Amino acid sequence: MNIDFWCLLAGHTDEISRAFRNRSLLQENWLLISASIVIGMVWLVLYLWENLQLQRRANSDTPQGLFYDLCKTHRLSRADINYLLKASEAHCHEQPAMVFIDPGILNSYISQAGSDARYYELLEERLFQ
Predict the structure, then answer these.
(1) Taking the model in full, what pTM does it have?
(2) Where are the transmembrane segments (predicted)?
């Protein structure tokens, strides 16, 4: 058996040497590969951290918890949430979830928003249409 193995191996020396030569490609690009892995890990940690924060806020049994739960249900981004919080603080500070019920709150805030008025209009369309 041992002799057969060596005979078989001797017939494929070119293939084996090619395989070891391709190994140097990984050694040359180790910096690129490790940087990609680090960036991917950082992105994954930040993604999981943000979801954990939203889940913790949504699970609290408060009006703000209901607001964050509705934001999670509507799959709103962090920017969308911040814009809705601004509108709710101006009109219904005690019950921020009212922004999801009454489209008049966003309508009245659009006139006060200034340069962000178009963003509020798009946000209102996404929530109420």
Answers:
(1) 0.52
(2) 30-49
